[in-house]
Specification:
The complex is a heterodimer of chains A (523) and B (235). Chain A has two helices and 42 strands. Chain A is elongated, with a radius of gyration of 49 Å. With 523 residues, chain A is mainly beta. In chain B, the strands form six sheets. In chain B, strands 11, 14, 15, 17, 18 and 19 form a six-stranded mixed beta sheet that branches. Chain B has a four-stranded antiparallel beta sheet with strand order 5-4-7-8, with no helix packed on it. Chain B has a three-stranded antiparallel beta sheet with strand order 1-3-6, with no helix packed on it. In chain B, a hairpin with a 5-residue loop joins strand 7 and strand 8 (124-128). The A-B interface holds A 5, 137-141, 143-148, 152-154, 156, 158, 195-197, 199, 232, 315-318 and B 4, 153-154, 156-158, 185-192, 194-199, 232, 234.
């Protein structure tokens, strides 16, 4: 019992003495480790993503919430979580979230450390969708005519961002349509407006087309996917209208065009216009025209394009628009040899005439092929194509020379010519001139290097279409005959032919001219 | 002296500590009165038989009653409401009541802009507010086109629509916004008083104007008919 009392007394004393040993329990700041947190948000988790404390997001965006803890995230903590507008949101250090409801959101990261100290960091997020621009209901409606160019012009439209009340601003542009035959002095307007309407107080030009566009942005700078792209026309003096046309042409380069308007009620009243158009600059505006009904005729300097004729009505204050005028060249160039033949004797220089009435032909648009070989030695000038053949291009067989030409409107013409065999395995007469009182020795002498056997030797007058000499089933390989000049006409083409037993036939054409003595005397 | 040999001593020690503990209890403050916390106090205004509204906007043509709504409602008992007009930091007590009726006019001294709510313990909540005297906008019945007008042109002709609206508060910063409604299509034309629009086929059409000011007061014209005769026959 005594032992128990002593034990109890010692315990009480020990308890009390601990109270006096309080220095050991005093907080020493030097021994503490600072804990701090930093919450950020980003649009992605890539290294280049910028982390911020506040940002605006589209409802389709994914927001990445991130937390940094100093000294690190492995410190002993009691609890941590995220609040969104005061409500529990997540218990992860890092998480991603898509917010589908527009509005303002405050995210708070809360960390309760091991000692019960609370650490907070907050982020602000504004979420909205892209604005919706009503691109069907606006003022003035698309194609409005007869706007007075000297009065104020009122533009109005409407846009909103669903689910949230946001201010909007608008990019507004106004420009005058450009035409190939006139220059505009209008200074384009490209401005930002805070209201969904605009009043243009300056003067416009009469009888012109003006294009205007609007795109909406909300205060988060999200842009509308819709865009108003509209136009209107201004009017001229009373009793006047105008004509604007888009002329579709196949020509890449500029083409001179003549246009005339003849009053159907008074054919002496004609308005003539001249201008040039091209594929890229093909819109014309004819200025003021008295109201009435007219016969329109459109033609160009190039006959391949033909002419366009239409009836048009010009109405008071209105601009008549023609968008379906086609000035098209569909005629391909023509290709002929200077000899007008499609079968040509081999020559080192061959010439062809290439014609096209739809603009000049670029030399680069001419291709010449001798079968599969491209011939680069060719020149085109003043409609004449000169083709240079090499000696090695000669052959004992027919060769095909193909010429392809593409005109300025992309019409392509391809034509092939036959080049007669230029290598023959026999000798015969060349072009010869004899006097009418002389005789000529005709000959064929086979010298084929292959040992082919000759079956027929023939001399044939092409001009008279009659046989001169034919030797068939012969074992000879030559022919020789002397004939008087009076057997021949003044001029004739003679064909020397060798037919071999293996079926190969070789021809050579040559010209025999017989000069009459009387003509000689006259000379 | 061995105190532990006396059986009464432990009891005395225990009794002394217990008495000391009870003495501590005697020093504790009184238990507070059970108070009902006030969550919100909203200032509301009413004119004629319209319901009370937190939109503090009154028409100068009629008297208005201002009140404060306390949530929860049972907390309202025991609260004191003092309505003041404050000008240049000088408070003028207008009335001490839950309700205060006044006639909106140009002399703002009768229109409260401050409310002090006090409970029995002297706790106070101060609410500062502004009651806007707003005159509703008025549309003139004179428009272009006038009712029954015939317009000559075509579907693409630009026809002029114009109207006029008035509001006595325009000089005090109010703004009027208009909606032009043509054949059921509403064009939000904002502050414009004139536009030119096309797209009307030959025949009968109708339009009207709706005007709204910054405080939501509106005026609407009745539908006006106009007729389009196509004289140009544009195809």
């Amino acid at each position: 019992m005594k032992f128990a009392r002593i034990y109890f007394l010692v315990a009480i004393v020990w308890l009390f003495q601990s109270c006096f040993d309080s220095d050991e329990h005093i907080f020493d700041e030097a021994d503490a480790t600072d804990i701090s947190i930093d919450a950020t948000l980003a649009r992605s988790t890539t290294p280049v993503a910028v982390s911020v404390k506040a940002d605006t997001f589209n409802i389709n965006d994914t927001i990445y919430f991130q937390t940094a803890v100093v000294p690190n995230k492995v410190i002993r903590v009691q609890e941590y979580h995220w609040l969104m507008n005061g409500q529990y949101c997540s218990s992860e250090y890092n998480f991603k979230k898509q917010i589908g409801v527009p509005g303002y959101y405050k995210f708070t990261f809360i960390l309760k450390d091991y000692f019960g100290d609370m650490h907070y960091d907050s982020l602000e997020v504004w979420v909205a969708d892209n604005p919706v621009l009503n691109d069907t209901l606006f003022i003035p409606a698309t194609g409005t005519q007869a706007i007075d160019p000297y009065e104020s012009i009122y533009f109005s439209w409407n846009a909103s961002t669903e689910g949230i009340r946001l201010a909007h601003h608008f990019r507004f542009t106004l420009s005058e349509e450009e035409f190939a035959n006139s220059e505009t002095k209008f200074k384009d307007i490209d401005t930002i407006l805070n209201e969904p309407h605009f009043v243009f107080h300056n003067e416009l030009s009469p009888l012109k087309k003006y294009n205007w566009t609007v795109q909406a942005f909300n205060e988060y700078n999200f842009e509308s996917s819709e865009k108003i792209e509209s136009f209107f026309f201004t009017k001229g003096l009373d009793g006047e209208g105008s004509l604007q046309a888009t002329i579709k042409t196949s020509l890449h380069s500029s083409i001179p065009v003549q246009l005339s308007l003849t009053d159907k009620t008074n054919e002496d009243k004609v308005f003539n216009y001249e201008f040039s158009i091209s594929q890229s600059k093909n819109k014309i505006s004819l200025g003021a025209i008295p109201e009435g009904t007219y016969k329109l005729k459109l033609s160009s300097n190039y006959s391949d394009f033909g002419a366009v004729k239409k009836d048009v009505t010009i109405r008071n204050g209105f601009i008549t628009t023609l968008d379906n005028i086609k000035l098209v060249d569909s005629i391909a160039p023509s290709i002929t040899s200077v000899l007008s033949h499609d079968t040509l004797d081999f020559s080192d220089t061959l010439q062809f005439i290439i014609k096209d009435n739809g603009g000049s032909i670029n030399s680069q648009n001419i291709a010449v092929n001798l079968e599969s070989d491209i011939i680069t030695d060719r020149f085109y000038k003043d409609s004449v194509l000169t083709v240079i053949l090499k000696e090695t291009d000669q052959s004992w067989a027919y060769r095909i020379l193909t010429i392809s030409v593409t005109d300025a409107s992309n019409n392509k013409k391809t034509k092939s010519f036959y080049i007669t065999p230029s290598l023959v395995w026999f000798t015969t007469n060349d072009d010869t001139i004899i006097e009418s009182d002389e005789a000529i020795t005709l000959f064929i002498n086979d010298i084929n290097p292959f040992g082919f056997r000759v079956e027929t030797l023939q001399l044939f007058n092409i001009t008279k279409n009659e046989d001169i000499i034919t030797v068939s089933n012969t074992d000879k390989n030559s022919l020789r005959a002397e004939l008087d000049a009076d057997l021949f006409e003044e001029e004739q083409i003679i064909r020397s032919t060798v037919i071999y037993t293996n079926g190969i036939t070789q021809n050579k054409y040559w010209k025999l001219t017989v000069k009459k003595l009387e003509m000689k005397e006259d000379d | 002296m061995n105190l532990f040999n006396r059986p009464i001593l432990p009891f005395l020690v225990f009794a002394s500590f217990f008495a000391l503990f009870l003495a501590g209890c005697l020093d504790a403050p009184d238990y507070p009165h059970e108070l009902q916390p006030v969550e919100t106090i909203s200032v509301m205004v009413q004119q004629k038989k319209a319901p009370y509204s937190t939109l503090l906007k009154v028409n100068p043509s009629d008297s208005a009653t201002i009140t404060a709504k306390v949530v929860p409602e049972k907390a309202q008992d025991g609260l004191t409401f003092k309505w003041f007009y404050v000008n240049e930091s000088k408070d003028s007590l207008l009335k001490q009541d839950t309700h205060y009726t006044f006639y909106p006019n140009a002399l703002n001294e009768t229109i409260p802009n401050k409310l002090i709510v006090s409970d029995k313990e002297g706790n106070q909540q101060v609410l500062e507010f502004t009651v806007v005297i707003n005159t509703p906008p008025v549309l003139s019945d004179s428009t272009v086109p006038a009712s029954g007008d015939t317009l000559y042109g075509s579907q693409f002709s630009a026809f002029r629509f114009s109207w006029s609206s008035m509001d006595l508060d325009l000089y005090s910063g109010d703004t009027l916004f208009h909606i032009l409604e043509i054949d059921g299509k509403q064009y939000d034309v904002g502050t414009l008083l004139e536009v030119k629009q096309s797209g009307f086929k030959a025949g009968k059409h109708k339009f009207r104007i709706i005007v709204r000011d910054l405080y939501g007061d509106t005026d609407t014209l009745s539908y006006k008919d106009f007729y389009v005769v196509d004289t140009l026959e544009v195809k």
